[in-house]
Design goal:
heterodimer, A: 149 residues, alpha+beta, Thiol Ester Dehydrase, Chain A, 5 helices, 36% strand, B: 145 residues, 3 helices
Chain lengths: 149, 145
Amino acid sequence: MADSTKVGKTFDPIVWEVERGKIREMAKAIGDPNPIYLDREAAIRAGYRDTPVPPTFLTVPMMWSSSMPVLINDLKINFMMVLHGEEEYEYYRDIYPGDTITGIPRVASVEEKTSKAGKKMDMVTVEILYKNQHNEDVAKARTLLVERK
Amino acid sequence: MGNGLYFEDIKVGDALPELSKGPIAKLQHVLYAGASGDFNPLHTDDDFAKAVGMKDGVISHGMLIMGFVGQAITAWVPRRCLKKFGVRFAGMTKPGNTITVSGAVTDKRQENGENLIFCEVVARDEGGDVKIAGNFSAALPLKRG
């Protein structure tokens, strides 16, 4: 079961240089034809400085770093029994190609819940606050991991 | 900047323009794995997926389906206006599913100098099964000023 003594613990920073090609790749993988994600000129015409990142882009630095497996191991969560229950983003500032964003994962809470079917589950909430190279908050990601027992 | 979408024009109950995606091909899982960095073989390797109990093989990345919802939202609300976007993953999506994203405005209010709209969103497959239920808020411009 998830180790509740780890609430409040922070993990190694995720450092990620945002690239225009990766933004385009993400939009294409989703199949999102919105030109602001694909074409710098179209983004500028729409009032952006460059191609902004799609709403779910912050999964990219999180997944390309090994931060989630490290955290799951550290909390002694059974990897085979973990589900992604919820995901939430708060957006504070635009993120553009050339920005370097740094996120610090933090265990926000660990709670045991019982499902309607009477099964016990641990609910682990991880928050990652991302800052840019100017030390400005740009976004927060909140992930709920559900460990079935 | 507002895509012609202004706070004054939005009414509670207004619908988000519906977006239909799919049918999802396994190849899209490969593209999404590379783009996102989520290489869990549950999404790309049928033998692995079957070995861990998925009788039909691979399932879609939940974040891919959230990406569809993000596409629907920012096709309507300008990306820059989006303040918060959260979802609950309610069911597994499989290749072959066609996902339809719909939503509606549930509230609007002016707060701390921002003109906020609050919306609920849902992604369902062709059989009506809910895959994602969530909500978002956005700060829209005013027509005047």
